[in-house]
Amino acid sequence: MQLLEIECLGKKLRLEGSMAGWQELFWDDKCVSQINANADNETFSHQFTLQSEQGEINVELNGDLQWQPFKLQFQLQVNEQVIESDSLDEQDIAQRKITEGKKQPIKFSFIGLAGLGLKLLKSAKVIKVLFAAGSLAAYSWLFSIEFAIALILCLVFHEYGHIRAMKYFGLKTKGIYLIPFVGGLALSDDKINTRWQDVFISIMGPFFGLILSIACLVGYWLTDLEILAGLAVFNALLNLFNLLPILPLDGGHILKSIAFSINSKVGILVCILGAVFGIYISYHFGLALLGFLLAIGSIEIFFEYKRRHLSELLPLNRYAQIVSALWYIVTVGGLSAIIWLVGQTGNDALSLPLKILGS
235-274, pLDDT tens digit by residue? Predict the structure, then answer.
């Protein structure tokens, strides 16, 4: 990931590095110094020489690096004269704006499809209306207009959680897209910088879903309207499905960020185990949609493996790893509790949601 970017002799000096210990220093996009992976990567020193009309210019970048929690102290010297000295922490990395590089990957919430096609069309607001109308028509044709409206409400509320999280970090958002027969997705043009941003954005969709299910359940207890019980349990099932530890679902992104913050080997192992678990769930419950998602997720796992030592995201510190895991467990537990509570009432509110997820 990019650790540092500063001005040096009128050009950009950029330091790249990873938790494995390797570092590369670029001056004007040319690698001028490199440190191989090592166990002791807390102290570093990069030196290189430039030629000018006045003769040789000796440049030296020294510093101390701590990964968890992240802290970088550095000093830049030119011909033994200190030019710049400063320190960076996690907040500095999170707030850093990326001006170059790839576009922010599309953030999938219910499933990770149709992203490439949307890149060509997402700037037109009419596309949102057409997709929303298509979704309403498709679900009305399959079930009923009442159920279609309820389903779209659940999807929009879930996606709104992702949008709110993106805006919390100051990311530019393109809004919510509803894809017929697929679900919804939230889009951002900006690039995230930290694993915590990935966790927070991923989990806020299901967490907003939990809030909606709780509100519907309370409404059912107060009014005895079965439609509220059905909405509560269906929304809970929808978000619980989304929290399965499988890429590209939100649950897969959350656990991937936690695992890769430990080290790349654990990250790859967790992704593979999640895929194996997904295959079992898909076969055991006959979830064809999940099998299709696994194909998408396997591509993501492949690219994670190829770039396992080149992550551009700041890893979670130990405290953030614990908070992320607990937040995930609490959200899964809350959604499961709602399903159990509705099941205890003895009505058939569970029958239609289970039939839909199995179709």
Answer: 898 898 889 888 878 988 899 888 888 877 787 788 788 7
Kindly list the structural domains of the chain, giving each domain's residue range(s) and its CATH number in brackets, ordered by start.
2-94 (2.40.128.180), 107-357 (no CATH)
Q: Exposure pattern of 299-315 as b/e (b: 16+ CB <10 Å)?
A: ebbeebeeebeebbbbb
- d(Cα 7, Cα 9) in Å, to the nearest integer? 7
The neighbour count for residue 146, using CB atoms within 10 Å, is 11
Give the pair of three-digit tokens for residue 329.
């467990």
The structure's pTM equals 0.73
Do 347 and 229 form a contact (C-beta atoms < 8 A)?
A: yes
Strand partners, 138: none
Q: Which residues have a Cβ under 8 Å from the Cβ of 122 and sit 6 or more positions away?
A: 174, 177, 187
pLDDT on residue 113: 43
Peptide linkage before 69 cis (omega within 30 of 0): yes
